[in-house]
Amino acid sequence: MTDLLIHDGIVVTVDHENRLLKNGSVRVSDGTISSVEPTEPADRRSTAEHVIDASGKVVIPGLIDAHRHTDFTLVQGLFSELAGDELLKEAFALYHTAESTLGDDFFDAAWRLACLRQLTHGVTTVNAMDFTPELGAEAIGETGLRGVIGPELADFLTPASAAEQLADARRFIETYHDTFEGRVTASIAPGGEAGCSRTLWEGVAELRADYPDLRLHTHLYDSAVANTMAAGSGTDDPLDLLDRYDLLDERTLLTHLLHAGRDDAKRIADAGAHVLHCPTVYSYFQAGTQTWFPLPALQEFGANVVIGLDDPFWFDSWDLIQESKHARLLANFEYGAQQWSSYDLLKMLTIDAARALGLDGKIGSLEPGKRADLVVIDVNTPRHQPYSNLPSVLMNTVTAGDVETVVVEGDILMEDQSIESMDVESVQAAAIRERERFQRRTGWETSLAGSTPPDRSILRRVSGRLLLRAIKQYGRGVVNQHL
């Protein structure tokens, strides 16, 4: 018995044959795609448990956000007018004071709101690195979404010691890996060469040896002084740091790479590691003099490059499709036109991202035997009609507002833009309550016209101490370059 039948849609399979069905049907049984074929007349009279008429609509694999931080979702709109150095100071301060100042209620509300944002934007899977992973696993799992979640390990950025963080990470893996019917899995997520001590890297290597199937998810080369930071762990550069601990291979996910060079790109590609590219956050704040990464070299050597939102609450957008558009525009501006085709971008948000996460055997394309993670997009509107070159329409014109239906594991989480898997009112009420409490505790002033950070808040006092500590450790010149 077919549980779900979607008929008469334009089905973009993103399979190994790149099939595109003008009038296609997708059948789902027990959460698995059983067939993807041209629509037959009988499909329109089907007695399947649930039938969706997708006439004039496009069916694609669920979108995959390859890199995201989630903890501070509730500060959206507060930080978006800050300069890059001010943003970094406030962020450091938040990380150091959040647990004692804000508590679990704040972060639980943040994760629930993030799930709502994710769902309504057609993102069925997220690869998250956060300081509150347990709350994230529960939120993702209960909402019906899919997530790879890693506790962010960064003993230079948070009060907890390396030993405490490593113990917490091991406990998280043992508790949450492969839970919620396999929709929630764990990763090992050291913050990067700038945030981790040598002791922490040694512990990460032990975790990797104990859990060889997990992805290693980290930031790399996101600062002009990345080599100096790596030198603190006794290595020549960040890739040498990973190599020393046997952490650079096809299970490794490297985020940003803004300051990597051609030789670094070759080493990454040769190792089979994956690059998680987040264009908007760095172009929005221009954190440093270099704001792009070595795309031509990565493409030349065949590295797998995929896209993530990073910190969507810093720049107020959760639209992964628009993120991919930004990636193309900025790449074309930097290196010349036609860096990526529209179909390349679609693959980066689906099957290529699934491959990076080690999930390409389960999701990322619409073909029999894979789990039914898919999105229905309405293009039968004056905004889109008439059109040709459907991949271009999807990547250049479509926005999250066109996402109509979202399915994960065959379960309908949103249909006709009506959310089925969440109590939207309670999620929004909790978010409003906790955001207001955040503002009272920190002294932020907000209005419809904008927001103003406090002059002498607890955040800025702690931030000042953090900067002094960083200056003592790395020197004023290095810190100024990093900011």
List keywords for this structure.
single chain, 483 residues, alpha/beta, Urease, subunit C, domain 1, TIM Barrel, 2 domains, 9-stranded mixed beta sheet, 5-stranded parallel beta sheet, 18 helices, globular, disordered C terminus, Metal_Hydrolase, Cytosine/adenosine deaminase
How would you briefly describe this protein structure?
It holds the Pfam family Amidohydro_1. By secondary structure, the protein is an alpha/beta fold. It contains 18 helices and 20 strands.
Number of helices: 18
CA-based shape: globular
Percent in helix: 40-55%
CATH topology of the largest domain: TIM Barrel
Radius of gyration, taken over Cα atoms and rounded to an integer in Å: 22 Å
CATH architecture descriptor text of the largest domain: Alpha-Beta Barrel
CATH homologous superfamily annotation of the largest domain: Metal-dependent hydrolases
Note poorly predicted spans.
457-483
State the total count of DSSP E strands: 20
> What is the top-level CATH class of the largest domain?
Alpha Beta
Question: Major beta sheet, specifics?
Answer: 9 strands, mixed
- Beta percentage is 15-25%
C-alpha termini separation: 59 Å
Number of separate domains:
2
Estimated structural class: alpha/beta
Q: Overall pLDDT, averaged?
A: 90
